[in-house]
Amino acid sequence: MYRTPASNRLHIGIFGKRNTGKSSLINALTGQDTAIVSDVAGTTTDPVYKAMEILPIGPCMLIDTAGIDDQGVLGEERVKRTLVVLRKTDVGLIVVQPDTLIDSFEEDLIKTFQGKKLPFLFIINKSELAGKAAQDYLENNKLAFIKVSSKTGQGIKELKAKIMELAPGHWSPIPLVGDIIKPKDVVILVCPIDNAMPQGRLILPQVQVMRDCLDNNATAFVTKETELLDCLKALKGKPRLVITDSQVFEDVRDMLPKDIPLTSFSTVFARHKGDLNAYIQGVYTLENLKDGDEILIAEACTHHVQPEDIGRTKIPTWLLNYTKKDLHYEVTAGGDFPQDLSRYKLIISCGGCMVNRREIMHRIEKAKAAHVPITNYGVLMAYLSGILERVIEPFEGGLLKINLDK
Fold this sequence. Notes:
By secondary structure, the chain is an alpha/beta fold. 34% of the residues lie in helices and 17% in strands.
């Protein structure tokens, strides 16, 4: 349960005014004292993320947020952080009490959920208390709700079933490679070891792709690029697919016969987490960049910056060599993502292995709304290496017909 990556969990955001019982609802859903409960309004300050296994739903990420009616300067900042949670939310629960007078706080949430096309449900918590104000409002406005009691357990089983119904198809992303390989296929994973590689382990995308191969009854061979030729010679036949780290694209391309399909971990995750078509279309912006253009490099996680960091050092160097232009860069990491994208000529996203698809799609949708092209690390590196057409070929069935020669 706890080994399921956060990015592969159904993210359930729990919203509402202070002291409506959001934290006690989490405890009732999980059957544990997961969240701190108090009669004092505003006990939850910043969003609290809790990875849980909730039967029969499965691996979830419950997000307990601060009250949307929090007051004062600090309260306003807490509300802002609460609303950022919406970028990651797959299913939203808006918690009220029976006597809650639903007003602009909840109505703004409703508009936001509807605007983002996110499934949501009202929870009338503490149903053992008197009052019908909340139910009357929800019935009059034809908004779905369920009555529960975190204290007695009433309605909790029905709530779990309802969450399963609401869970959108997007939260369970496109397979990594399971739809392009068959049982008994041989897949070679090329994993270079450099200064950026964590000591004693592989990085998460490599591990997840390896697991997907095993889940689909394929055989995965793991090698460094320096041993790739030996690995190929050791096989009785040709591998079904070779997946490489993007940073050794050119080395692997030169070693690998053209009749062996090749892609990269970043390309796999571009399709798995985001919109591969948008990334492919966005990368052609490189041909139109001018001196002084601003580029946003958007990382989805925080990490210790290495001397040869890909986002801060390698990509700017590669783009300088390719475009011969004086480009200006801004790097954001973790949950940071600019509200105003209008000044950027291109956004380059990481693979998004540490966040869920909802967060990556939020960024892509914001870029599209601002008419700013977006691509990602793997697609960019394949393009610069002249092998974009080859690395997307294994996935062509799900791609737009794009003129790769333009």
